[in-house]
Design brief:
about 100 residues; elongated; 5 strands
Length: about 100
């Protein structure tokens, strides 16, 4: 019985260790394709393609290595993101971490 408990605990620790090793991996790859120049009350920001869907974002994290004001599009990136809970059109996301690929 003690041997089974030891094996289960060892397996559990291996699973936890392998999960923590992947913390540097990003959730998605994406392509920032340009400005949203439409003129509507909910428009603006930048378009980004992620997994065959197009989203928009308005800001990048402060520690980002990307300057959108002087960028040449498209920009290939890897990023962590979530759906914006206050979305106006429903396609807005919040980028929490991003880097050029």
């Amino acid at each position: 019985m003690n041997r089974i408990i030891t094996i289960v605990l060892f397996t559990f620790l291996l699973v936890i260790a392998s999960c923590s090793m992947n913390e540097d991996e990003f959730r998605s790859n994406g392509t920032i394709t340009g400005h949203d120049d439409r003129e509507c009350i909910c428009c603006g920001g930048y378009f980004i393609d992620i997994d065959k869907a197009t989203y928009r974002f308005f800001n990048l994290p402060n520690n980002s290595n990307i300057n959108l004001d002087s960028a040449a599009f498209p920009i290939y990136v890897k990023l962590d993101w979530t759906n914006d809970p206050n979305a106006c059109l429903g396609d807005e996301i919040i980028v929490s971490r991003i880097e050029k690929r």
